User: Fold these one by one.
Assistant:
Number 1:
Amino acid sequence: MIERIETGVRSSKIVKYKGIAYITGQVGEGETIQEQTAECLRRLDALLEKAGSSREHMLRATIWLADMSDFAGLNEVWNAWVPEGHAPARACGEAKLARPELKVEIIVDAAYEE
């Protein structure tokens, strides 16, 4: 059975199916890539918890940067956030984001106990 959490007209914040939680893309506020990344990761923490999962159970992360020159700043915050030994499979690319002030969007899939 598919479980949808915080479902709106366009999307759900979380979709759970067969032990995997698919977390919708998260963005953050702030002037710098570090500030936006930190806020984005705080939001992901809350959604992972709501899904019955955690950082240690992340399977995959997809990261979109508005500008690849922010790659080092993103990794500075990301590397401190990911628990040692629990890094997910990850992809990072450049994309035009929904609003011009956004620098990063992160999408996570994570396992949860059924």
Number 2:
Amino acid sequence: MSGSGGGGYMPPQRVFFDCQTSVITSSVSSINITVLDKHKIGDVLNVEIGSSNALVLEDGDGEILGAILHLNTSDIIECIKGGAEYEAEISDIKSPACRVLIRRR
């Protein structure tokens, strides 16, 4: 058979992340449904580095909605460690799933 192209699998390359201007859209992982039920589309959450060095979304009451697992998660963590602050706006809720738009504050 032909058509394989002869090349091996190439994983997607990471996109350059700029601490000042980059914006990402991501699904929220490990969602706390009780916290999700308190929120609606358009609500803004804080993006923080959690206790296990994970990127987490925290609401104004200090409750964790969930975590962010994205190709640029490590970049955002480094930007936060460098003094940048980020926020996540809820863009879609289909419980138990949720998507957010993350941008610099």
Number 3:
Amino acid sequence: MRIMFVHQNMPGQYRELVQWLADTGEHQIYFLTQRQPPPSFDGVASRIYKPHHKPAENAYGLSKNWEECAGNGLGAARAARRIEKTEGFKPDIVIGHVGWGELTFFKDVWPDVPIIGFFEYFYSDKGGPVGFDPEDPVSEDTAFLLRARNAVPLANIETVDLGLSPTYWQRDRFPKSFHNKLYVCHDGIRTDQLKPNPKVTLKLGRLDHELTRDDEIVTYIARNLERTRGFHVFMRALPKILKERPNARVLVLGGNDTSYGGKSKHPGGLRAEMEAEVGKDIDWSRVHFLGKLPYAEYQKVVQISRCHIYLTMPFVLSWSLLESMSMEATIVASDVAPVREAITHGETGLLCDFFKPDALADQVVDVLANPAKYDHLGPAARKHVVENYDFTTECLPEHIAQINALVSKEKRIKLPLGM
């Protein structure tokens, strides 16, 4: 089959699917992206597209996002047309993310080519991160701005032949009129690779010895240390955790930028803001900010953790939550709807009120003090992920079935026997 993937930040949610398809050696795969340089995948031809237009900084707020996405869409569509003209590649199916407008005009390029679009999030001032935290109040115009952002998915639900949302919570953020066109299936977790490792060791620069599973390690991981991922709550819980567990050591992974929501007004960002707020009560010799680590080192951090903290406002689940569950981490997470889809309190993890850092600290302290009491959580979490989110046995077959339903019989993708 000839397949074109479209995602401005290649590979995005398609990392495992693209690699699996390429590894079969049976398909011609193009990936259209803005990312420069694009990551290298054997058997995948990456092509760069440039936005046709970008809005001015002072562009009208209600239409600025659409203006940017329309520029992405036209740039991607023209690149697709150029690829067919100069390289002779016309796909049998197009698979891409709708959020940046890249797919908007693809039916005008190839009216007969089916499209599967990734529908990640529908904006609203209720039920999501916006307006969730009283410390970050919304303006009277916020609802208007968020509704305007939904012009892109509203246009693209008509563009695609089929849509995809990775979780039921995300699907249910979209209007019910979308639902008969959306199937729900996660990107997939490589549980065959993400396993617990009781012999794991980790060397930190400022320590003269390696850490092991015998050490009392608390971990917190996010792409960026920001409010949407509860970094401020985590920091407020730290003094009590460190005071009550004098041997505990805390490892923090994440960048200092902002992926979601507004930025801190503090000149040093949210990390500096929180250090100024609670720093005097923290033993910094036992707190390690590790930034962004290579994937193999990130795995070691999770594998060595005695208690892993995952915090988020009601928003898209991080891959790290399911990956940590696959590695049998004992997880203390925020009690919000998208997390409850993955974790059942007391069975596969522990849930705490997002707004109560003291309660979070008490739960973490109890996990550290009584590990045997919670020994069942990690294995149960892994079992849940294997049964519901495993890439090879659960997610891949569903994605392939949905792709095959849109193409002719002779072009369908074959799965190995037993899958």
Number 4:
Amino acid sequence: MAGDQYLPFLDFLQKELLLFASLSFLIGSVDDLMFDGLWLFHRMKRRLFVYSRYERVTVEKLADPSPGCRMAIFVPAWQEAAVIGAMLRRCLQQWAGNEYRIYVGCYPNDSDTVAAVAAAAAGDSKIRLVMCQHDGPTTKADCLNHLWDALCRDEIEENRNYAAIILHDAEDIVHPEALRLFRHLIGRAALVQLPVIPRRAKGSRWVAGHYGDEFAELHGKQMVLREALGASIPSAGVGCAFARESLQKLAARTRGKPFDARSLTEDYELGLHLTGGESRGIFARLRDRNGQLVATQEFFPDKLEDAIRQKSRWMAGISLSGWDRLGWKNSWRENWMRLRDRKASFAAIIVAIAYVAVILMGILAFADLIGMYRPRPVSGFLEILLILNLGFLLWRLAMKFYFVFSLYGLREAFLSIPRTVVANLINIMAVWRALSQYIGQLTGQPARWEKTSHFYPDAKDVQQLRPQASTGGRG
């Protein structure tokens, strides 16, 4: 009796959910296919008309227009005692001979991090400890504004300006030639962004591993085409250099605070603000003499809770708050890119609906197996949608496989296929948390720096982190 009452409704619900999800997937897949087609055209054009005519340049061959110009590196730190010391010591080692200063922002109530920074500096003038005025955590943007204030005071006292401000996190593994590349390009753009290469701890094949899958495609295809189309370049928050003059102009319009402390994704928004007008942004994919990308590597969260927390912040800041804070522009290229940025939260909801439909399909199949209920067949229209979406899904997995293989090798490329399910589950859980954060912002709750645990490898293990990659030039 219970089956007679509820199973027909579940059958109807399953078909409706499947139809809605299939139509939504089709729209998103057509968008992705158009983007992929443009990227393939761009790549083919570069191979035919650029790479075939000119020798590919490595970073060591770049002319250094201003070898003596100073770079300021901003590193906001809250409860980073476990990693900040090793990161700073590696920077000093890798960037020996360069003109730079690392500004590390700490909080009065975080004595362990302060002690770790002081120990790593050991009287070295290249590391400057900056104490925030308030106990932490505030927001990363608030910490960055304290570093900006300290830099401006130093410039006045020393009567010498910096050429660029570079953002890094306390767990970043820097490339020895990164500063050379920044010096070469910063005079041509308001923002220079290097690729970010996620690494994973050995015990987190699925949670941490899915970041590598996503960034391989994001920084191997999406950012490349975004620059080629002339759209604004969002900052990844690490491995990015802002022209000093561009930040100064922005600070003049924001009462001396270039980083918006009300934003959960201040780095993303800052990049769009600085490169959305006449100023340009550059996404720099260049290799060194060993064929390795000049990139920023770091270990991303390896625990499920940390991954959900981090991704919910990205979704709340980019997909949800971005609609209110950044709006839209009078450019189809710009609006297309912003729409692609903002559809992540909605895609996660659609995937959740599709998973519910699959679960209901399993229940109905079991009811059919035991003779309790025979589900209605799907309509011809829905069958066509399912076939089309299956083809699009195979294409998406093939693209992911290619980019992961190009960066990490064959084993990780095969793992990226089942990791798609893990990524979907993380995004589904993150979107509900993001909605809660967004509603909290609308009701006036202040933004706060949500801490995720970080890991930094031993010095002897860093060289083993370099990804497999073929030699090649920019793009």
